[in-house]
Design goal:
By secondary structure, this protein is mostly helical. The chain is built from eight helices and no strands. The protein binds adenosine-5'-diphosphate and magnesium ion. Adenosine-5'-diphosphate (ADP) is lined by residues 28, 32-33, 35-36, 39, 76-78, 81, 115, 119-121, 127-129, 179-181, 194-197.
Length: 216
């Protein structure tokens, strides 16, 4: 992945979040406070503006800027969590130049660890972690299995991650929330898809679409 691909991914996330903002807010209305779409859209609109105004830095710079922007511009739980993930992803990448698929896998794993550390959630708590964990697992596996591909396995890994995130997102529905606002509802949180897990899927879906578009 080079810096222009990293930027294209962040712009694709901004487009997707903007298109899905109402849906994300509806999901949050059921088990939260009806602001998840607003929070995410505000955050990624700010990310777009920050990247528009920034020099064409390496991949590391793109993700650290995006992450810092989310942390500082989003009030809800999700901004600091996704922001920390992107910052950790950036910091795990080479200081200059591009990131190969293995480096990206390590960076995505570092992002997940940042989310878990900051939010204290574990798998099954009905959060971002429930979509992010299977996505990173799938990314790593597919990256290894497809390392001989012309793109170093990036497209295959991103596709596998998006599919796994989608399943993880769907699997949050029967869970009872144990972290964040939804946990206040106790058993009444059961039967609703988690908003943050849904955004996580959108983010990985945008990655898959970005790297596939570049390859063809
Ligand atoms: N401790 C946590 N760890 C991981 N994800 C969390 C945590 N708390 C909340 N979330 C995620 O944040 C989402 C809610 O985000 P948002 O509505 O933007 O923030 P808020 O809950 O502050 O209103 C939830 O759907 C959940 O996925
Ligand atoms: Mg909310």
């Amino acid at each position: 992945m080079d810096a222009s691909q990293a930027r294209a991914w962040m712009y694709a996330v901004a487009d997707s979040i903007a298109a899905q903002a109402d849906h994300l807010t509806q999901l949050d209305a059921a088990i939260g406070d009806s602001d998840h779409g607003v929070n995410m859209n505000r955050g990624f609109t700010a990310v777009r503006a920050a990247l528009d105004g920034a020099p064409a830095d390496g991949v590391r710079g793109v993700f650290t800027l995006a992450g810092s922007t989310l942390v500082s511009r989003v009030g809800g739980a999700s901004g600091p969590l996704f922001g920390s993930a992107l910052r950790a992803l950036g910091k795990a990448l080479p200081e200059e130049g591009d990131a190969d698929t293995a480096a990206l896998a390590a960076g995505l794993r570092a992002g997940l660890e940042a989310v878990c550390k900051l939010g204290g959630a574990v798998l099954g708590d009905k959060t971002i972690v429930d979509a992010y964990t299977p996505a990173v697992d799938a990314f790593e596996q597919a990256a290894q299995a497809h390392s001989g591909d012309r793109d170093g396995g990036l497209a295959a890994a991103a596709r596998a991650a998006a599919d796994a995130a989608h399943q993880g997102m769907r699997d949050t529905t029967p869970l009872q929330a144990r972290r964040g606002r939804a946990s206040y509802l106790g058993e009444r949180s059961v039967g609703h898809q988690d908003p943050g897990a849904t955004s996580t899927w959108l983010i990985f879906q945008a990655l898959a679409e970005t790297v596939t578009a570049r390859r063809s």
